[in-house]
Amino acid sequence: MSETKKPVELGVFLPVGNGGWITSTTSPQLPATYEYNKDVARLAEDMGFDFALSMAKWRGYGGPSKHWDVTLESLTTMAGIAEATSRIGVWGTIHTMIFHPAVVAKMVAVLDQISNGRFGLNLVAGSNPVDQGQMGLWRDLDHAGRYALAEEWITVAKRLWTEDRVDHEGAFYKLEDCMSNPKPRNIPPIICAGTSDSGFRFTIKNCTGSFMLGSNRDDFVKTGLRAKELAAEVGRTDFKTYGLFTIVPGASDKEAEERVDYYNSGVDIEALDNQTREYSSDPSVKQNTMAKRFISQGDARNSMSPAAIIGSPETIARKLADIAINAELDGITVIVPDFIDDLKTIGTTVVEGLHEAGVMTNAYAHQHG
């Protein structure tokens, strides 16, 4: 047993889109309802998870599974979950192209009151041209332009959270004697999933942490270390990195693999093709790391991320600990097929295995007093 434990936060990426995170007709067909997501968040809180995060999505991919054709709006969902919980962090997602920063500044201040300081914000600078374009809100900005808008966006929001009156005239926003009250008690934790060097630099400058995933174990380690390297260059020793992991547990490695085979037998190729087509329509797709991962999944005809961690709780714990330690992650965010039974496995048996492998979570401490 390792004597020195690496502290790592544990979070759940809520299934606010129907079908959850697996593009298949044979996977658990999760409902995109507030009640289900509230139950998941409460379960995570009961097991000692640190945070629950929801995505923002405006258009589904259709197909036989109707993948993500029904989705909950992120901030209103987290407002409800904040009221329904008492300890767990509640994090919502904002597309900076869609919402004016002054609108979100006030929304966050109210969320801060509802959650008693537990709210966090996930910023998305780009995403899918069709998803936001259907509403006429997509801006034809290149990769650098999207981060320029996002930087002006967060600058305005932070000023409104801390200043009585704001005058601002920039490339994207104009505010005249703008007042925004109430204020949040503190600027909330802010994460961003940009993992190009420009994305990392924006995140390190403006946010508290980076939200990332990898195509395999080595890619995770490389990406995590690159974020820490860039943060160290500007003296951000407090900068955090959160890895996103799709996890499929089973009583044994064989049983877990059989689950994946079954889900892949019903892979929704039509939905994946729609996803690939929409992300490929982005002229800056070569610089959009997240888009390239979605396209890669579609090309491979996989029902889930090719980086999914599959196996018994012992195997999952060993692989997760290896990545968390070697990538120097500060947080693990999980996606599972069934957000009740599978999440219980993560929050109990896998958490125990992580502790044995040298990773300390608040969930373990919570369950052991």
Automatic annotation (TrEMBL):
<keyword id="KW-0560">Oxidoreductase</keyword>
<dbReference type="Pfam" id="PF00296">
    <property type="entry name" value="Bac_luciferase"/>
</dbReference>
<dbReference type="InterPro" id="IPR036661">
    <property type="entry name" value="Luciferase-like_sf"/>
</dbReference>
<keyword id="KW-0503">Monooxygenase</keyword>
<keyword id="KW-0285">Flavoprotein</keyword>
<dbReference type="InterPro" id="IPR050172">
    <property type="entry name" value="SsuD_RutA_monooxygenase"/>
</dbReference>
<feature type="domain" description="Luciferase-like">
    <location>
        <begin position="9"/>
        <end position="322"/>
    </location>
</feature>
<protein>
    <submittedName>
        <fullName>LLM class flavin-dependent oxidoreductase</fullName>
    </submittedName>
</protein>
<keyword id="KW-0288">FMN</keyword>
<dbReference type="GO" id="GO:0046306">
    <property type="term" value="P:alkanesulfonate catabolic process"/>
</dbReference>
<dbReference type="GO" id="GO:0008726">
    <property type="term" value="F:alkanesulfonate monooxygenase activity"/>
</dbReference>
<dbReference type="InterPro" id="IPR011251">
    <property type="entry name" value="Luciferase-like_dom"/>
</dbReference>
